[in-house]
């Protein structure tokens, strides 16, 4: 057996001794992470290409920026619903098939969004894009966590998946700089169906989660399907998840929605140059997703999460207040990069909290809570920029990461342990 096919033990302590150990080839685990990550990256493309070409959409559809801001919030409503809905579907219908349905939904709706001339229809399609795109994380992270070995679970669940999310933004920025000036914004949306179909076909080749298959084949009488609030310790873990994901989601959308606007207003760079700088920031994020997840595997989820929050607070404060573009570019790149660090660690951590039978549902509830709060983040930051200028709203986002620190202090350490040892 080659090194790439070395078996990784997946344990189920509740199973009979003879069935307690089943092997997952590392190649299979890696393919799941890549397939999930490619979909999450395409989700990132579908999300961010909208904000990058917003002024052009406004002209073509004869819509005000305020109305398009509302459409952005409609997208986030769909994102919240999809996070919870696809989490439930993953527990009922399986990880692989649900992940396939997710990408088909938002791939088709993104493409149709580039063809419509109706603002209400465009808004409805963005809502459905949000519903479908949300399934990528809600299904992909728990799926990958169930397949990867305990000693490097964060590297797969957080590092591989979120680094490809960063690559999706880089692709969207590239489309905004290369495709849009030549062919218009509609083509940046319409071509989305091609990678969606390719990723869907790749996903037909990956293996269903071994833990999920085992859990479906075993009739448990231990109350694993009882309501979440009745499970001892569940309330505390849900609150921990909400604390971490309110910070993650509000911080991400509050900062990145107006990232290029901040640079244009404060440093008077052109919109094209601002997009170029943002692209470089996401290259740093690609790298720091692996740094954060690697640290989570080496030193622990809590250490990595708290350290990432402290870095985020410091870099946000400097980035928001400096009047020097070079200083902003240095600290801003670390700020955006550390978002990848924090999401990579958080995605892994939340995937480890609950047992396989309800992992998708409960992961969706935790992340969905954060995404529900994030619906208001772009509006608040946008109003703040209009009223106070760009500095104060961006500086205020630094306070969000105190929630992250509190969440990790309240949560258990899960590093290096089998899921069955830490889940409830």
Q: What does this 3D model show about the protein?
A:
There is one protein chain. This protein has about 425 residues and is an all-alpha fold. It has a single domain (about 20-215, about 225-420), classed as Growth Hormone, Chain: A. It contains 19 helices and two strands. The chain has helices spanning about 25-50, 55-60, 65-95, 95-115, 120-145, 155-185, 185-190, 195-205, 210-215, 235-255, 260-265, 270-300, 300-320, 325-350, 360-375, 375-390, 390-395, 400-410, 420; strands at about 5-10, 20-25. It has a two-stranded antiparallel sheet. It is globular, with a radius of gyration of 21 Å. The protein starts with 6 loop residues before the first strand and ends with a helix.
What key attributes describe this structure?
globular; 77% helix; Growth Hormone, Chain: A; mainly alpha; single chain; 2 strands; two-stranded antiparallel ribbon; 424 residues; disordered N terminus
- The share of residues in extended strands comes to under 5%
CATH homologous superfamily annotation: MFS general substrate transporter like domains
Shape: globular
Biggest pleated-sheet summary: 2 strands, antiparallel
Average of the residue pLDDT scores: 91
């Amino acid at each position: 057996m080659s090194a790439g096919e070395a078996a990784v033990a997946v344990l189920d302590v509740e199973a009979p001794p003879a069935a307690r150990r089943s092997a997952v080839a590392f190649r299979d685990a890696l393919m799941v992470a890549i397939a999930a990550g490619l979909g999450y990256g395409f989700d990132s493309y579908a999300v961010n290409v909208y904000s990058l070409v917003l002024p052009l959409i406004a002209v073509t559809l004869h819509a005000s920026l305020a109305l398009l801001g509302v459409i952005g919030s409609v997208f986030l409503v769909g994102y919240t619903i999809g996070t919870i809905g696809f989490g439930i579907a993953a527990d009922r219908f399986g990880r692989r098939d649900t992940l396939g349905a997710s990408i088909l939904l938002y791939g088709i709706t993104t493409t149709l969004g580039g063809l419509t001339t109706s603002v209400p229809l465009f808004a409805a399609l963005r809502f459905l894009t949000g519903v479908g795109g949300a399934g990528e994380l809600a299904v992909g992270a728990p799926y990958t966590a169930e397949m990867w070995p305990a000693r490097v679970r964060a590297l797969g669940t957080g590092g591989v998946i979120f680094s490809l999310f960063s690559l999706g933004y880089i692709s969207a920025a590239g489309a905004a700089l290369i495709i849009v000036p030549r062919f218009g914004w509609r083509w940046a949306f319409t071509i989305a169906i091609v990678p969606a179909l390719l990723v869907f076909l790749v996903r037909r080749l990956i293996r269903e989660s071994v833990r999920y298959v085992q859990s479906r084949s075993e009739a448990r009488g231990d109350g694993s399907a009882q309501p979440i609030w009745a499970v001892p310790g569940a309330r505390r873990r849900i609150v921990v998840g909400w604390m971490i994901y309110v910070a993650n989601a509000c911080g991400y959308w509050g900062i990145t929605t107006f990232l290029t606007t901040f640079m244009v207003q404060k440093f008077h760079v052109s919109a094209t140059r601002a997009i170029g700088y943002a692209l470089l920031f996401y290259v740093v994020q690609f790298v720091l997703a692996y740094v954060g997840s690697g640290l989570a595997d080496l030193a622990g989820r809590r250490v990595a999460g708290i350290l990432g929050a402290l870095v985020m607070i410091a870099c946000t404060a400097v980035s928001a207040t400096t009047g020097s573009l070079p200083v902003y570019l240095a600290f801003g790149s670390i700020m955006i990069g550390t978002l990848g660090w924090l999401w990579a660690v958080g995605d892994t951590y939340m995937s480890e909290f609950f047992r396989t039978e309800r992992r998708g549902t409960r992961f969706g509830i935790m992340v969905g809570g954060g995404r529900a709060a994030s619906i208001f983040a772009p509006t608040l930051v946008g109003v703040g920029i209009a009223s106070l200028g760009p500095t104060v709203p961006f500086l205020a986002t630094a306070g969000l990461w105190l929630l992250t620190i509190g969440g990790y202090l309240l949560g258990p350490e899960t590093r290096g342990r089998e899921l069955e040892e830490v889940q409830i």
